[in-house]
Structure formats: C-alpha cells, structure tokens
Amino acid sequence: MYAYTDFDRQFVRARAAQFRDQLERHLAGQLPDDDFRALRLQNGWYIQRHAPMLRIAVPYGVMDSRQMRQLARIAREYDRGYGHFTTRQNLQFNWIPLAQGADVMDLLADVDMHGIQTSGNCIRNITSDVTAGVAADELVDPRPYAEVLRQWSTLHPEFAFLPRKFKIAISGAAEDRAAIAWHDIGLQLRKNDAGEVGFQVLVGGGMGRTPVIGQEINAFVPWNHILVYLEAIVRVYNRFGRRDNMYKARIKILVKAEGQAFFDAVNAEYQQILDTDEGGHEQIIPDAELARVAASFVTPAGVSPAPSTDIFAGADAAYRRWLERNVLPHRVSGYRSVTLSLKRVGLPPGDATDAQMDAAADLSDQFSHGELRVSHDQNLLLPWVRESDLPALYAAAKAHGFATPNIGLLTDMITCPGGDFCALANARSIPLAQEITERFQDLDELWDIGDIDLHISGCINSCGHHHSGHIGVLGVDKDGTEWYQITLGGSDGSTLSGPSVAGKVIGPSFAADEAADAVEAVIATYRRERQAGERFIATVRRIGLDAFKQAANAIRRTTAAH
C-alpha cells in the first residue's frame, strides 16, 4: 500500500490541527453553524439523525493492520463499539460526540488516515477493484494511478466547491468489479496495440433520482495525460453544472442535457490546458513520479510463486462451501485472496465491532502480510494468503464471525444505514436487511438460489446502490410511514450481471410489513421459472417482469386496498 512521506504526514496533521481550531471556535460560539458546516463536511463530519457521523477515507479500499487497530480503538473509546464499512470503501462512525472530534482526527492522523473530502461538493474518495494488484484477470494494476488521482484531487483549489459531490472509480482488470459506469467518471485501464497504457474514460454516470449509465468520452487517454483530461472534465462541469437545483446539479444531468456539446467542450478544454494554461504541462505525469508512487505497490517481501495445490482435496462440506464462496483466484501461483464476510445474523450488513476490527487486523498480520481491503460490497478482504494457510485462516475466521460462506449469495446484500441513522433517509434499511437475512439462513437453500445481488437503499440518494441490484429495494416515505419500492434486473457491470443498467420497478410500493414477503415471492418465482443452471438475472431477462410482479402483488395485505 502507499507509504506516506514526511510531506504526506505533515499535510494530514496540519489538516487535523486546522479542524481542531475550527471546532474549538465553533464550540465557543465564535464560528456559526452555517460557517462551520462547510468546514466540517470537507473533513467528513455530518450531523445525522441522532448524533454526528464521521466518514473516514480508505483510499481505493486499501489499509493495513495498524490502521484497522486504530479504527477499533476509536470504535471502543469514542463510539459505541462498532463501525460501518460503506460501498465507497470508507468507514463510518455514527455516535462520536462532536466535542471529541478533534481528538479522533488526531488519532487518525497518527496512522495516516483522515476524513478529507469524504463529504461536501468535491471529489470524493477514489474507489477501485477490491482485488486490485492481486486479481488473476488484471491487465494493469490500478492502485498507483488511483493514488496519483487521490493526491491530485485532495484539496484541489479549483474544485473545492463543485455544483455537487463528484465520484471517480478506476478498474484495471478484464472484469469490472468497481462499477465504473455508475460513477461521475469511470476509468478503465487498457493497453493499445503498441502495449502502451491508457484509460478508457466514461463520464456522466450516477444513481440517485435519475439513474444514468456513464458514456464513453474518450476511448484511450495516455496514462500520463489522465490528470489533464480529468482537469478538463471537472472544469467544464464546474463552469456549466447547475447550482440552482441540487437535484439537477450532478454531472450526469449536464452530460444528458448537452450531449456532444459537453464532449466537445471537454476536448477543447483539454487542448487549451496543454496549449495555453500556465503550468498546464506540469499536469502531465512524469515517469519518475509514477515510479515513485508505484514503488509502494510491489509484491510484499516473502511472497513468491509456489506450486498451486488442490485446495478442495479432503475438504468437508462446510469448508468446501467457504472455499467456493469466500476464496478467489490470485495472480501469484500458490496464493489466494480471501473475503471476510460482514454479512451475518445479528449485525447490519457492513458493520464490524471493535473486537472484530482487532481480529481482522490480527488475521491480516498472520495471513496477509498486514494488508486488508474494504470491498464495494461492504466486506473485508485479505489479499495475500498462501494456499497452505487456508485451513488455519478458515478456523480463525470462523471463530470471529467472518466465515459465513455467502459471498455473492442473497444474504451478501448491500445496505445503507437508512433511517436508523441517516437524516436524509425516508425509511429504515437495516431491519429489512436483517429480516431477509434471518429468513434465508439455510445454506442449502442459499446455494440453490445461487448468485444474486440484493441492494437496499433507505432513500433516493441510492447509497445502497439499489438501481444496480438484481433485486433493488428503495425506501420511500408516504405520509410519515415507511414504504418500499422494488426493482428487478439491475446490473453493476460485472461479468455475472452484464453491462450496467438500472433495474425496473415492478409496481406500487410495499408497506414495511410486506417488503420481505415481496422479496421472498420474487425469489420463489425465480426458483419456479428458471431453466437448468440459469441464474436469477438471466431468468429475469428471459421471462420479463410480469411473473415476478404478479407474485409480489399476491402477498399484499396492507396495500391490497390501495
């Protein structure tokens, strides 16, 4: 992972000290709420439904055991003993008293962490493939480029107050595991016929009230020009994006409205930066700078190829299931990456207790050279596990509640915190997620249902990515009560799901006491209608929505008269 320099550490410590000064002046009544709001937001501090919420950046999802232990300490000493890992590869704490906020920021700075630009109308945390650098199908390692983008975007003076928040994702593998088409900018690393590295650039994707798939604006930007090209995109957005209506302020609205005119403006701006901007050429990334950053992303000392083994030999049923679902192929022979599942009965999806954070840190030290990853799907991953260590890791993961063999299955759902915490939410997500999880605890049944993406959002802001779920659930408010809209057929762009597309609504919303029944009816319809070996998403696309809609409507009780 990226090794902080003295400059990096001074930068983060200075930011923490600045926040302490701002917070002290605010608490003393010298800095009004409205003035303090923008300052706290760009350090990751929200005021939520019940208490402040702190969002901590985990750049492109990579962290080490030292950082995880510090998060465990913060959870234990300042929060209520747990944290929540998000779809943007961040961590959120929901109960830290604001008066203690500066102390927490100092603790984060001690381990090279922060909340800079995890909120506000700025470029947010750069996200990537959770298996970046270890994936068997990787074409180009995206981590060095993601780090360069992080440094470029952090406190960028021109882009501190954009029309709306801005999100970038980058992938370097044959399979898109970063949902790049669903982002304001999506970057796909590729090589041309000459073997040169560059980026396919997508622009204008996003969820929310108007789900839009990003469009290709450039098929191949040379890697060393990518900052210039991104500068051009964000400048055009900053100049022409709407500021009169926050619901129409995202770049997707501008791209959709302007079409080719937007593309032309970006390409003209790109050329202008190179031709006439003072210092424009300084944004062309030097080979030496990429090499400096890439030096942090080498194979850990002690990792060397070894003969691959049959990891299933002698495995009992439970261990085999874990191997099938939680263990992934690796680019280094004799190694695997292993998912620690954060989806189980008793805790909301994506939550980890302080004890589990400490345990995950211990497992990473013992089995993965001290490195962990946070996944887009709200799980943790150990990227450097020897095949010979898999039995011992399984036993240890099981002891700490990480070994649920459900990765990619129905209970491995994405869920936002919803109305239990978020001030923007219209409905709770966590109780529905827990109810569905409890109903589908039989592993034989889960295996029979097979691969399926269930995504739950508590409001139209789509933090639970419901639009891209094979089954999507959106919480809505009707006269102060919770209702849930169900969509089917969405895709995040992965090989399983196919090209990115938004799911389609199957009818009027369901009352809170009907939502889990409706999901169960949809699953039962799939099991009845599927062909041999056919996955859920394929059945939906083959037979259409009517059969699922009829089955869901048949369970209506509260809404039967509506």
TrEMBL record:
The segment(s) forming the Nitrite/Sulfite reductase ferredoxin-like domain are 53-110, 344-399
Alphabetically sorted, this entry's keywords are: 4Fe-4S, Heme, Iron, Iron-sulfur, Metal-binding, Oxidoreductase
Against InterPro entries, the record matches this protein to:
NIR_SIR_4Fe-4S (IPR051329), NiRdtase/SiRdtase_haem-b_fer (IPR005117), Nit/Sulf_reduc_fer-like_dom_sf (IPR036136), NO2/SO3_Rdtase_4Fe4S_dom (IPR006067), NO2/SO3_Rdtase_4Fe4S_sf (IPR045854)
* Metal-binding listed as a keyword: yes
Give all residue intervals belonging to the Nitrite/sulphite reductase 4Fe-4S domain.
119-261, 414-552
Which superkingdom, per the lineage?
Answer: Bacteria
Q: Which PANTHER family match?
A: BLR3264 PROTEIN (PTHR32439:SF9), FERREDOXIN--NITRITE REDUCTASE, CHLOROPLASTIC (PTHR32439)
Which protein is depicted? Nitrite reductase
Organism the protein comes from: Roseateles depolymerans
